[in-house]
């Protein structure tokens, strides 16, 4: 039928092979459209009991949840539709967007896999690492990776955190001599990358090489390109996407990232070939790659090169931009609230007693700094939204339910500003996280690292780095906001500011003594 229709409209001399080719493409396109429409109907039925904001016939809510004001729009919807509402990325991808602790517990206390409609876009970059794996392979990798985050390993990283932070502080000291106002997000990003290069790859040189800079820029490009792809339904089809300039830019950035990781793995394997494991373990610290190269599964088999690269790239993806975002927004909070900044600084000075760096034993004493870090996590979660696909039906506390296969989005930003959970949610109040106040709060009300069995494996690493970096920043500088350049919140995969984060800095005079104790 398709072929006869084409023969009417095309010239008689048109090659018959081309007719068949065009007919095949049209038939496949029609089949795909039929599948998408059937899927849309299934999603509509699943979300039928959840009222929500009006849906554009083509874009869904995609245009309203990108760019400036997107997070304010989400909060407005959350205040209008209690607990949850449908959220559509284009016409064919629909989630139940949840921001209620009971709803979060119902889904995230289970082990449902990540939503492939979103995280599938990550595969060309990070491969099938812990972030996207599911089932037995996920359990296997989680078990193999856990030793990399034990205290004995993390303890040795404190000095590396401090070293990279000091390089950033030296850079800031030079900048403020010229201009007191500094855009911090980019500098914090380079510092976070430098730290990860040391902790993952065992980098020994200080500062950024050209290779580091190229890698950093590739990571930044990949994060932005992935976010744009998620929100642009015309990029959801793989075949069409790779034909676009956007898709080709993504592949180019992937190649830079992969080439860097592959090169380091090859070099490290060559070094280890001539060393005994015992000799390797005598290093000042074991980096992430050392540990991955040494682990074996229950069959005494090492990880494949493909799995190694996937886990290294996953750790880099999850540990770089998230750290950059968290530290930058924390310093912004400190700039806005000088009374809390001064109290944190006083606590740090009392703990360090004139020392110029931070040691492992200091971290547990930073109680008020920890309260402020958690409150900054609440107001500015580095990952504002995470996604799951239900492996079995779920019924929520209010009686509404979702069938197996449904897509769920946990909007952490909206959850953390839910006015039915938090008193004065827009107010910065570190006392929310004292033991007394925490004990009376719903355990799923505060989820900066997600929750349940698939929570962030690196959260202790992240908290340690946050404490070391922010303590040293507050020790060396006083921060205040630049009223002429307030940050414009922009939700990508990571919470960032469209125009950067600009802070006025005042270098503090210090009477410090060099620490003789290694951390």
UniProtKB/TrEMBL annotation:
Membrane spanning residue stretches: 17-38
Gene3D superfamilies xrefs: Cytochrome P450
A Pfam family the protein falls into: p450
InterPro entries (alphabetical): Cyt_P450 (IPR001128), Cyt_P450_CS (IPR017972), Cyt_P450_E_grp-I (IPR002401), Cyt_P450_sf (IPR036396), Cytochrome_P450_Monoox (IPR050196)
Cofactors: heme
Protein keywords: Endoplasmic reticulum, Heme, Iron, Membrane, Metal-binding, Monooxygenase, Oxidoreductase, Transmembrane, Transmembrane helix
Family: Belongs to the cytochrome P450 family.
PANTHER family according to UniProt: CYTOCHROME P450 4B1, CYTOCHROME P450 FAMILY 4
Cell compartment(s), UniProt: Endoplasmic reticulum membrane
Entry GO terms, CC: endoplasmic reticulum membrane
Gene behind this protein: CYP4B1
Organism: Monodelphis domestica (Gray short-tailed opossum)
Binding site for heme: 456
Protein name: Cytochrome P450 4B1-like
CDD domains in UniProt: CYP4B-like
Molecular-function GO terms, alphabetical: heme binding; iron ion binding; monooxygenase activity; oxidoreductase activity, acting on paired donors, with incorporation or reduction of molecular oxygen
């Amino acid at each position: 039928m398709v072929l006869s229709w084409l023969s009417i409209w095309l010239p008689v001399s048109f090659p018959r092979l081309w007719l068949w080719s065009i007919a095949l493409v049209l038939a496949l396109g029609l089949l795909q459209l039929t599948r998408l429409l059937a899927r849309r109907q299934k999603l509509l039925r699943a979300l039928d009991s959840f009222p929500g904001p009006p849906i554009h016939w083509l874009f869904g809510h995609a245009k309203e949840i990108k760019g400036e004001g997107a997070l304010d729009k989400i909060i407005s919807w959350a205040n209008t539709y209690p607990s949850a509402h449908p959220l559509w990325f284009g016409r064919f991808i629909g989630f139940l967007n949840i921001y209620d602790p009971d709803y979060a517990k119902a889904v995230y206390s289970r082990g449902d896999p990540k939503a492939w409609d979103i995280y599938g876009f990550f595969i060309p970059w990070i491969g099938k690492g812990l972030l996207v794996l599911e089932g037995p392979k996920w359990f296997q990798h989680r078990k193999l990776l856990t030793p990399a985050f034990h205290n004995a390993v993390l303890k040795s990283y404190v000095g590396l955190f401090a070293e990279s932070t000091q390089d950033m502080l030296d850079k800031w000291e030079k900048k403020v001599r010229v201009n007191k106002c500094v855009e911090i997000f980019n500098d914090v990003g380079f510092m976070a990358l430098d730290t990860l290069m040391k902790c993952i790859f065992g980098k020994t040189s200080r500062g950024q090489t050209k290779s580091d800079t190229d890698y950093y820029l590739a990571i930044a490009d990949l994060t932005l390109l992935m976010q744009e792809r998620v929100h642009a339904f015309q990029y959801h089809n793989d075949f069409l996407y790779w034909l676009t300039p956007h898709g080709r830019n993504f592949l180019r950035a992937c190649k830079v990232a992969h080439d860097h990781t592959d090169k380091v793995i090859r070099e490290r394997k060559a070094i280890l070939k001539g060393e005994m494991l015992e000799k390797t373990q005598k290093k000042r610290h074991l980096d992430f790659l050392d540990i991955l190269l040494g682990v074996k599964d229950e069959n005494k088999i090492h990880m494949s090169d493909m799995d190694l690269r996937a886990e290294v790239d996953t750790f880099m993806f999850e540990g770089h931009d998230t750290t950059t975002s968290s530290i930058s927004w924390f310093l912004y909070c400190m700039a806005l609230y000088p009374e809390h900044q001064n109290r944190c600084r006083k606590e740090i000075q009392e703990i360090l007693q004139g020392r110029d760096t931070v040691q492992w034993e200091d971290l547990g004493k930073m109680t008020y700094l920890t309260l402020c870090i958690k409150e900054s996590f609440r107001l500015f979660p580095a990952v504002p939204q995470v996604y799951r696909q239900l492996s079995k039906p779920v019924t929520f506390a209010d009686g509404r339910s979702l069938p197996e296969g449904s897509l769920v989005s946990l909007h952490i930003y909206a959850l953390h500003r839910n006015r039915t959970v938090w008193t004065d949610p827009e107010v910065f109040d570190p006392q929310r996280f004292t033991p007394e106040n925490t004990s009376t709060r719903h355990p799923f009300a505060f989820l900066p690292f997600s929750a349940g069995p698939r929570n962030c494996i690196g959260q202790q690493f992240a908290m340690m780095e946050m404490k070391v970096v922010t303590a040293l920043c507050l020790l060396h500088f006083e921060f205040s906001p630049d009223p002429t350049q307030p940050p414009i919140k922009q939700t990508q995969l990571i919470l960032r500011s469209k125009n950067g984060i600009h802070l006025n800095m005042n270098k503090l005079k210090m009477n410090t003594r060099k620490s003789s104790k290694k951390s």
